[in-house]
From TrEMBL:
It holds the Pfam family ABC_tran. The lineage of its organism: Bacteria, Bacillati, Actinomycetota, Actinomycetes, Micrococcales. This is Phosphonate ABC transporter ATP-binding protein. Gene3D superfamilies: P-loop containing nucleotide triphosphate hydrolases. CDD domains: ABC_PhnC_transporter. Keywords: ATP-binding, Cell membrane, Membrane, Nucleotide-binding, Translocase, Transport. SMART domains: AAA (SM00382).
Amino acid sequence: MITFRDVHVTYPTGTKGLDGVSLEIPEGEFVVVVGLSGAGKSTLVRAVNGLVPVTSGELEVNGQRVDGARGGTLRRLRADVGMIFQGFNLVTRVSVLRNVLMGRLSHSPVSSLFGVYGAADKEIAFDALDRVGILDKAYVRASRLSGGQQQRVAIARVLAQQPHVVLADEPVASLDPPTANAVMADLRRVQRQLGITTVVNLHFLDLAKSFADRIVGMRAGRIVFDGPAAEVDDRVFESIYGRSLSVQDVSTAEVDRLT
Ligand SMILES: Nc1ncnc2c1ncn2[C@@H]1O[C@H](COP(=O)(O)OP(=O)(O)OP(=O)(O)O)[C@@H](O)[C@H]1O
């Protein structure tokens, strides 16, 4: 369970990232956050693992307060919250397996410091690779994989971490539309299999509607819509984006389907 209670984030520049956000995300839900650039989507997601400090209000993850957490408390929290980034953040000069094993760092810090992982850690890493369909790439250098495959490695690394919460900040923004769809389908499938609470920022509304249980719409640091994906119609779209739907708001795959 993730709970925001009247959370404000003000950056040192004075810009408001979040302006009084209250939100409850129950365990096992798949939530997609949408909104214009600068609406506060990344700030919302990054606040959950303390990457962005909360200025005021309360933020709790599985009963643990994130606001004000530091040191060991923050490390324990981050061990339980996996993060997937737009740019994959892999170490591309080493193998896929080594990258996935990095997800075990918070569980076996001493042995992994020396690059030695136990059989149990390797089994977890192989299982994670299998879940995203790239087990055959385990010994391939990460740099040799396509963007979609690299993001699957990043998903496998997060799964190897065995977190209760996964955060994904624009995870498919650098992929072409069919690959973006396939990677979202992988993320959604493993999320359902393992019941991990997942919060994803997405740019395209059709992707958000296809994969979300629930959509949170943001505008100027505030939540302007919160409901099931099926309830997002043109009126809701306008409340989030301040204008009607245009061709730039849907992925190429959706444009093809509509024309
Ligand atoms: N490190 C920072 N320092 C100062 N201002 C920031 C910082 N990060 C974000 N902001 C500002 O906070 C507001 C919310 O930004 P945020 O990145 O959360 O929006 P977003 O909806 O994720 O946008 P995008 O889709 O472009 O990533 C914006 O006005 C942004 O310029």
